[in-house]
Amino acid sequence: MNASTPVVTRFAPSPTGYLHIGGARTALFNWLFARGRGGKFLLRIEDTDRARSTPEATAAILKGLEWLGLDWDGEPVSQFEGRDRHAEVAREMLANGTAYKCFSTPAEIDAFREAARAEGRSTLFLSPWRDADASTYPDAPYVIRLRAPRDGQTIVHDAVQGDVTFGNDQLDDMILLRSDGTPTYMHAVVVDDHDMGVTHVIRGDDHLTNAARQIQIYQAMGWDIPVFAHIPLIHGPDGKKLSKRHGAVGLHEYAAMGYPAAAMRNYLARLGWSHGDDELFDDAQAREWFDLPGIGKAPARLDFKKLEHVSGYHIAQMDTDRLMQEIAAYLDEAGAAPLTETQSARLRPILPVLQAKAKTLPGLMEQAHFAMVDRPLVIEEKAAAALDTVSRGILSELTAALQHASWTRDDLEAAAKQIGESHGLGLGKIAAPLRAALAGRSSTPSVFDMMLALGQEETLARLQDHAG
Asked: What residue stretches are annotated with the Aminoacyl-tRNA synthetase class I anticodon-binding domain (predicted)?
């Protein structure tokens, strides 16, 4: 492949379910590699399995990619819609002698394999039609098979795994076109990648054996072979292949758990790829740094503590507008009601205080609870204990003192401090009843931050509700 050829990568999911976190990472690697080189990132929906492919799954995959922030070039390509083109290439191979018609029935193939097992031979099917004269063809259904080389080796020059060698005697004459005229997945992938101009195939290492078989189709057609990069799968914390027993495996589940998309991009990029000791970075750095040699050969392990650390970093770095967008996306994904105008107005000013400590968006919203609720507040049992007769009297005095205060932090603190001192109490002692009155809870942000976020009218109303 010419070094000056523009980079084209692709993500090619099967629409049979949600977007798996492993698929999301594969998409991210392809996106980073293309975007960092001014290339194209294409999307192909491999929907040839008509029984299992659904429009709902396709929509879920697109929504997952959009949430993750991975934009693709052009319209998504449907593999199923290219079936005529796939058949055309198979017949072209038939014409140039790199493929042949095979009339063997399933029963004959089963009998061949049974005999091979009984004799201790390889069960790799050797079609009797490979070199048959066309004059002997029966008037019967047939498949089109690849005329694969029987001798020598096929080498996958892999950018991650290194050179991986397959003996051609271990690779069969795979079917390209079934007897009903539909293409097989293995054949369709090659035709699509060629026609889409894909230069780099970055995918899971469970496709490594497929690469050897697919290379033989490229060679049969005289097409340029793309750069292959087969990345190790993601394992759970116990080192076993990631599955539902480890918890969340769908990208949508991470969105619903309140991990921001920027944090997921950062975390997934580091899941199996490294750039020195850099753990925390933004999109621009990831695009600049990402390269195939940085991908490790060993499976990556999901680590929720590390994900929380990355999440906390990105939440702390966000500007208010971006964070409000992330919160809106989280509430939508979690099936919660969107923020009202009043809630948004109260939340915005408090975000810089809350985001410094939050690890996830639900954690941030938990601290922002006071801004989400309306009067009359439901008071938690522990907070209610702080609202004794003396405390209610202090709240009454504070309400009066704040009626004409300029609504600044310094003035609010000064008023509270003055009333506290008149009762021989420090600020810490009157904070508990203030928390209870303002939030209905004993664990909250700073009482003065809450006052500033709620505004004078709402603050005084909440204090008045519990004043004695």
From this structure: 327-465
Q: Give the domain extent around 140.
A: 81-231
Task: Point out the domain boundary residue: 231, 258, 283.
Answer: 231
Q: What is the pTM of this model?
A: 0.91
Show Cβ contacts of residue 398 under 8 Å, excluding neighbours closer than 6 positions: 415, 416, 419, 430, 434, 463
Q: Which of 40, 241, 244, 305 is catalytic?
A: 244
| Assigned domain for 149 exists | yes
**pLDDT tens sequence across 381-408:** 999 999 999 999 999 999 999 998 899 9
144 beta partners: 101, 177
The position carrying tokens 């810089």 is 352
**Residue 1, pLDDT above cutoff 80:** no
How many residues appear in the chain? 468
Residue 3: predicted pLDDT: 62
Domain total in the chain: 2
Taking the C-alpha atoms of residue 380 and residue 173, their distance in angstroms, rounded to an integer, is 71
Is the distance from CB of 187 to CB of 180 less than 8 angstroms? no
Question: In angstroms, what is the C-alpha Rg of the chain?
Answer: 31
Beta strands 153-158 and 162-167, pairing class:
antiparallel
Two tokens, residue 239: 């080192």
Structure confidence at residue 2 as a pLDDT band (50, 70, 90): low
Let me know: does 57 contact 17? Beta carbons within 8 Å: yes
Please report, in range form, the residues annotated as the binding site: 244
Range 305-337 burial, b when 16+ CB lie within 10 A, else e: eebbebbbbbbeebeeeebbebbebbbebeeee
Task: Judge whether 63 counts as a catalytic residue.
Answer: no
Residue 301 lies in a domain: no
Contact 6, 199 (CB under 8 A): yes
> Is residue 69 a part of any domain in this protein?
no
- Number of Cβ atoms within 10 Å of the Cβ of 86: 26
